[in-house]
## 1
Amino acid sequence: MKSEMIVTFGGGKKVNADFNGFTIHTDQSEYAGGEGSAPEPFSLFLASIGTCAGIFVLSFCQSRGIPTEGIRLVQSHFAKESGKGIGKIEIAIELPPDFPEKYKDAVISAANLCAVKKHIMDSPEFIVKAVTR
């Protein structure tokens, strides 16, 4: 099975991706020569990890009738020892005091089902090529 995402340039440092009927806009920060009008691509990558874990936590709670008010995920990024790149990502699932104790381990397991995380852990092969159309 193959799916395609079309990436185009929107002027300046803007790069957009069209996928499944949505356009995802990116830009670089002013510091990097952009206008700062949209998230940088790497920020979207990081957000995909947290929001993916979040949808699994949300679905877990919804399927059990557990209220989600007061639940939030806090994603922290730690630099590699070399100082270049991210060496560790930590997601803390903050639960309200009335969250059922019996589900605390299960909600962690639900977050760990994140497909983005699984793809990072078992990364796909990348092929970049130039073609004339």
Note: Residues 41-63 form the longest helix (23 residues).
## 2
Amino acid sequence: MTRPGLVLTDIEGTTTAIAFVHATLFPFAADALDEFLTLHGQSPEVAAVLANVPAPAAQTLRRWLEADAKVTPLKALQGIIWRQGYADGRLRGHLWPDVAPALRAWHAAGVGLAVYSSGSEEAQRLLFGFSTAGDLAPLFRGFFDTRMGGKRETASYTAIADFLGLPITDILFLSDVAEELDAAGEAGMATCQLVRAEDGTQPSGRHPVAHDFRDVARLHALPTPA
């Protein structure tokens, strides 16, 4: 296989344990929500997010949190809340041990890197910027969230390729979710499903399978980190 010009990666279940998102990040935001809205609800940044939340805002946000709704205002607000947690050291972005060495090796070899996740762009930057492996945010050309469209919609992947100014066939998309990979593949991207035993992911049978980023490197002619 020809080496991709850019690797576009999901986060949850791909670079990062699902448990970190659901057992650490989500509860952190939920526990802080009420006090955060009281203290910061009138700030221009937060008010702009709340303008897109049906009233009563606090109840709507709680309902979205309980449903893990993939809605842009909730994801934006979570990112703002997590910002303080990362800044004061209460949060550190989890990455599987194979991820950072691979990302650094690919970047050093001239392969572009980008992220596409349901979490907000800011949440993505924070996770990689305050990761357990150090600040990896500068390695990435772009961070894309649901403002590009849903992750199971083919048009979202076309929009990302257009934004990056790359032929869509030059991009490899990594995710643990088969339906996301289906949409990316239909758009013309190469695909690879991350099947990490720790997260209980099952192969779909529709995409090449990698158990870690070392496997991704071997399957797609990318530099293999030591």
Note: The chain has two domains: 6-16+93-219, 20-87.
## 3
Amino acid sequence: MEKERIKSGIPGLDDLLNGGLPKNGIYVVVGETGTGKSIFGAQFIYNGAVDYNEPGVYVILEEDKKYFIENMQSLGWDFDKLEKEGKVKVVPYIKSIIGDVSTSLEIGLVSNDSSMDRARQYLTVNSMFMQIQEECARIKAKRVVIDPISIITLLTDSEVLARMQLISLFEGLRRLEVTSIIMVEEGVRYWEDVTFLCDGIIRLIMKEKNSLFERGLLVRKMRGTGHDTGMRPLKIMKDGLRIYPNEVMFR
């Protein structure tokens, strides 16, 4: 049975996916710095709310919320307005991480030994999910973006612990019945573990040829649907990303 699709809100992408992303899946967008990951996630959330009446939660882990909103305004996306209308919630979770550590120190749950560091890490991931769950319930969200998840995998030296945390987070997102986009920085430890847990992988690429750089997109994996397997040009326009499904990079 064909899975229900949702529109990505990114011109050209749905053409590569036979109509859109399978609903309620978890999809990883991986790429190096500058390939357009944050714009991808913001466009997915913003156009989902504006064009398809699907509220969304955007979790930012490495950027100030005020800076994020100002930066997206340059693309014509007024996240501040959507937040006031209850259609979107931008969660600056880095503050929550700091709060986890401070609170844990105060109540004696965290010390300098490795076992307590593991306890702190569990609290961080768990509280992040609880906040996502709360915001999803409040605005009846259908979409979630976490940008990026890399910081979670960097906070522990244990591959087993990192994988367990990812499994816990992903299982929680599936229970929420939302379509999720997870941003991953290329080359970060343990990100390969994410690929076994997610429903799809979209790789953003920047290649150089004859001193010219071109961005591109490749759908590496997508469960529940056929998909294009070519490396397609991607451009950052004044209103966001655009993919060219009928072209190839560096023709």
Note: The first helix runs from residue 13 to 16.
## 4
Amino acid sequence: MKRAVCPGSFDPITYGHLDIIERASKQFDEVIVAVFANRKKAGLFSVEERLELIASNVLKFKNVVIDSGSGLLVDYCKAKNVDVIVKGLRAVTDFDYELQMAQVHTQASGVETMFMATSPTHSFLSSSIVKELAYYGGDVSTMVPANVHTALQARAVSREIEDK
């Protein structure tokens, strides 16, 4: 069985992420969507909240499971018997960073990385942009699933209260 992992912080998950997950699900027997906390960024949502936000949006993909991880991705891959890491690329800037990471992963563990170009429809999306827009009341309903949109709106309202 060929297993792949789509790792990320998914803070929050966007339609761009879901596009990559769906396309990966067509290429592998099983795809694990693994939520990792990014130690360089303060998360808007907890890992548990992110897992909940992702769960209902991947139900339609019968071979996709969700999980969380911490530490090195290569250690996670070894523990879960993952064959391939799947990463979405939006632009050349993504490629520069992801290529270095792929080479490190292959050298450290033998786990290969497969790059998927994001669909043009979603190539501008990032969780950071979505969070920034939502924080200032921008409409992100076309960028994220409905449950994520609702959670972002609730979080923005709670921050407005905190800011007063």
Note: The chain has six helices and five strands.
